[in-house]
Fold this protein.
Amino acid sequence: MNKQRRGDGSLRHLITLEDLTRAELDALLEHAQRYVCASGARPPMNRALDGMTIGNLFTEPSTRTRVSFELAARRLGAEVINLEVQLSSRAKGETMLDTIHTLESLHFDGFVIRDSEPGVVAHVAANVAAHVSVFSAGEAHVSHPTQGLLDALTVRQHKGARFEALCIAIVGDIRHSRVARSAYEAFTALGVGELRLVAPPGLMPEAGLFPAGRRYATPEQGLMGADVVMMLRIQKERMAQAEIPDGDQYFARYGLSAARLRLARPDAIVMHPQPMNRGVEIDSAVADGPQSVIRDQVRNGVAVRMAVLETVLRPRPVRA
Ligand code: CP
């Protein structure tokens, strides 16, 4: 049985992008685009989720994902509860499912979950009541579906919807990155022309993963002529101490400097999911420079999460 769809094929949860079609991705991106607004403008709001309650349960740190899921739910009229997991009865040994079932008794309609253990989000989704939906806010190194969507939306805004015409280079710690996995799923489903993976051997994904990606050992090879340069953070929290590269050496060989960026197309955009290690994977002059769309990625996070929440939660039959 599909872990995130209803019997009619519609999305009941959003756990992964791996089975989304191009038509579904296009529909979500177009939906999200309607919620994008310029910096400083009053953001769009409606009552689409009026009366609903969403719980944010994050067992790993987050700034962007947690805040933007909360803003998205509130801007659609939902009530939002941020459960401080360390201060909850989870700290006394309560299981995740007992916590979830407790919150269901308090009339929660959806859960946004970030967890460091693979499979927890799907496990919760398989065990919630029929009227409840679950949204992944990042699952271990496995997936970060709303990040993949906001990355695709950002590329679409700057480069157009013809992904076939684009060369996208993903650079850095791809092996431990859930962002890279979901971006890969989104970009390949959208028909990207060329997808490059640029990493040192220890940070390249295992053979067989990312099958459509062309592998490059150096940015000098992998950035040549790219339209999009997506830099990744070194995921120290998923590495043994001995595996963590030295920051200065890493920047010298793989960091995105202004000189390296000149290998890409002159109109290439620079992306980074953040948080950034400035001076390790990216130079501040590039991160804050004219080709950077990193702040657009953050802005698009709210719009994408509004589209996802509305798409998943609204088709449900009204309960008595
Ligand atoms: N990009 C991202 O997931 O950021 P946070 O960890 O701050 O949510």
